[in-house]
Amino acid sequence: MPLAAAICLAIAAPAFAQDASTPSPTAPPKDQKVAQLSAVTVTAQKRTENLQKVPISIQVLGTEKIEQLHISNFDDYVKYLPSVSYQSLAPGFSEIYMRGIASGGDGNHSASRPSVGVYLDEQPVTTVTGPLDIHMYDIARVEVLAGPQGTLYGASAQAGALRIITNKPDPGGFAASYSAGIDSVANGGIGHVVEGMVNVPISRTAAIRLVGWHERDAGYVDNVAGTRTYPSWGGTVSNAPTCTPGSLLVCTHAARKNYNSNDINGARAALKVDLNEDWSINGTFMGQKTTTHGNMASDETLGDLSITHFYPERSTDRWWQAAMTVQGKIGNFDLTYAYAHLKRDQEEHNDYSDYSFWYDTLYGYGAYIYDNSGALINPSQYIIGKDHYTMDSHELRLASPKEDRLRVVGGLFWEKSVHDIEQRYKIDGLSDALTVPGWPSTIWLTEQVRTDKDEAVFGELSYDLIPDTLTATIGGRYFRADNSLGGFYGFSKGFSPGSSYGEAGCISPMPYRGAPCLDFNKNVKETGSLGKINLTWNITPTKMVYATRSEGYRPGGINRRGSLPPYKSDYLTNYELGWKTTWLNNRLSFNGSVFQEEWKDFQFSILGANGLTEIRNANQARVRGMETELTWAATYNLQLSGGLAFYDAKLTANYCGFTDATGKPVTECPTPQAPKGSRLPVTPKFKGNLVARYSWDVGQNEAFVQGAVVHVGQRRSDLRTVENGLIGNLPAYTTFDLSAGFNWSSFSVDLYVNNVFDERAALYRYAECAAATCAAHGVVPQYPNGQVYTVTNQPRTIGVRFTQNF
Fold it and tell me: What is the pLDDT of residues 87-99, one digit of tens each?
């Protein structure tokens, strides 16, 4: 309705004005406001350029758009990016995909490296468990580069790159702003946010910028009271607030409403110094702590937005980044050196009793769980997991003047990421004989270190075959990767005496980082190269078409289960035709691309025995698609923007689920787990959004109304036929957001309603253990369709925000 009203007003307003006045002259009156699109600047090709001149499929959300759409986190901005799909467990624990290049990895700490690189300014900040979930305040723009970006961005950008660019200090003048808001979530609690920024010039050549934020996200999932009886033990556990002592009824955690609230606190300090006209230094220190209470998922068998868990659940994601960028000139070449150091600590406390319950129900697991007296005990497990990341990166590059007919950009890149992994699977009261030595009540321990090193030489060369009209570009990247994983994983010798891993499988008698020993230590090294070819035709100064062939890759690595062979690199080749056009005297831009991508021997993650992630190279896949984006200044008052993406992502060979002796995927088998033609998971066939904003003058002030609609089509939850049938598809959904506000002087206030129709959008569906076990149908009357969890979007949220700029 708001969109229809805005379009009607836009069409009617000029006609009404013409009817009420004399015929308009050829030129508009001097005081008449003219509708026009603003120029958008990006740095996607490692140099500053106009978006409409860059022959890459790029979507951009600028500062103004981020504020208008009330974007504050990862979930908020991803829904307006048609080329991006994702699945999320909690803030900071999301898997992101582009253009259908998705195998459905579960985000396990020992899984494949992500296929999409997320950058904070110059540094990649993508870790295996997910990219940083940065609070989106005082952000210059988000740039999304769809398709392989291997030549300029390397291994972390196989399917694309997402770049978050912060606002930099400005010596030109003092500036400050603050914003405060409060919101109410349907069937949930009350949230709030406070954020502020100040830019202070120190001198004519130096400035400092300070930014801070605090956010409270209200909970809306209820941990409802429930019980669970274990067949082997014969006892019952409950999460009810009160229990009867002295019986087999054991109380472990109290149920409560609004279980899944979040607290986010962070700050950024940046300093810019212009040494002279040619040289400058930018330094930034930024950090954030996110505490997530409870669980973001719900169990549909219990009702809407409900779950029954028995152990305390929370996660903490704490990180800080120190970065420095030096920019200058050597002759007429631009030199840039970028260094960044990132530390990230994640700690999770998760209920894992589903694993215990289903394995006990199906296989009698609980008969092996006892205390020091030999009596059977409650076999429920819970997890305490810690992931500590340290990432360092250096990049040195040179770029020739962009006005030259022959242009080049190239450099050197080095990165090292060290990931300390600790996972304790605990059972209270567990016998000392079953416990991993030195780790009380721990039936399973993972204590490992993963190291990923990347070194590369990269460059792109462009030549104007016909000045200002026809340009050819070639690019390349030579890389060297060294990835290792080693440590301890498994049970105690008392629980599993004949195991090839754990304490029984020690390859060294010496303790390892507090664990009993080292039971495996492996690494893989590889070198290779990537290429890119592009031809760009500027038909007119406002209309351009291009053709590109580009490549991306993802390094191989070591399986967490050390007895499995390493998995190999997978490669992606992209063939693309695109266009960037501007029409109607810079009132309308229409950009898009059509493409085909071929994915070779892609890495596929599954939950194997004991719930361990296993990674194997699968087979071949192909994605054909189209992406379009339109922005239209219909009148000075009405702005329309939208994006659409269509994908046909499928296997081009059978997935049999195993490889040959050389690690090559086997594609001929009697009963493939996913036959040729199966759709790849997570990505819909169609995703799109439309935003309409109508503003009008009220005296010297301004009022506005805005509507935004997002549609995401149906998606598979798993590549494999049987597992997808057990977990179920992710249904299509459409959400609608509405806002209105008033700006006067340096103040603004706006009222918004997100998810107006309270749509339950399924973002992720999963089971706690292998689908054939925890999602088994017809085994437990209480769960006729197995026990499957769904992570949904936030219910209808009504909020108000006040902002002042100085």
Answer: 888 888 888 899 9
145-161: pLDDT as tens digits: 999 998 888 777 899 99
In 111-209, where does DSSP find H-type helix?
150-153
How far is Cα 611 from Cα 444, in angstroms, rounded to an integer?
Answer: 11
d(CA 409, CA 151): 11
Strands (E), 375-469: 382-399, 406-426, 442-466
- Distance CA(788)–CA(303), nearest Å, equals 13
Integer Cα distance of 311 and 689 in angstroms: 40
CB-based contacts of 403: which residues, under 8 Å, 6+ apart?
A: none
Measured CA to CA, the distance from residue 556 to residue 659 in angstroms comes to: 15
pLDDT tens digits along 173-194? 999 999 999 999 999 999 999 9
Q: What are phi and psi of 509, to 5 degrees?
A: -75, -10
Partners of 318 in the β-ladder: 289, 345
| All domains in the chain, ordered by first residue | 2-6+37-805 (2.40.170.20)
pLDDT digits (tens, 9 = 90+) for 352-372: 999 999 999 999 999 999 999
Pairing of strands 227-229, 49-50: unpaired
Q: Predicted confidence band at 127 (pLDDT cuts at 50, 70, 90)?
A: confident
Length of the chain: 806
Burial status of residue 692 (CB atoms within 10 A of its CB: 0-12, 13-18, 19 or more): buried
To which H or E segment does residue 178 belong?
A: strand 175-185
Whole-angstrom Cα distance, residue 570 to residue 103?
A: 12
CA atoms within 13 A on the CB side of 739: 25
How far apart, in whole angstroms, are the C-alpha atoms of residue 520 and residue 497?
A: 17
Task: Give the pair of three-digit tokens for residue 530.
Answer: 């990537």
What mean pLDDT comes out for the span 330-349?
A: 94
Residues 6+ away with beta carbon under 8 Å from 242: 251
CB distance 609 to 651 below 8 Å: no
Structure tokens at 546: 């291009």
Beta-carbon contacts of 621 under 8 Å, excluding residues fewer than 6 positions away, are 598, 599, 602, 649, 650, 651, 652, 680
Q: How many CA atoms lie less than 13 Å away from 680 in the CB half-sphere?
A: 33
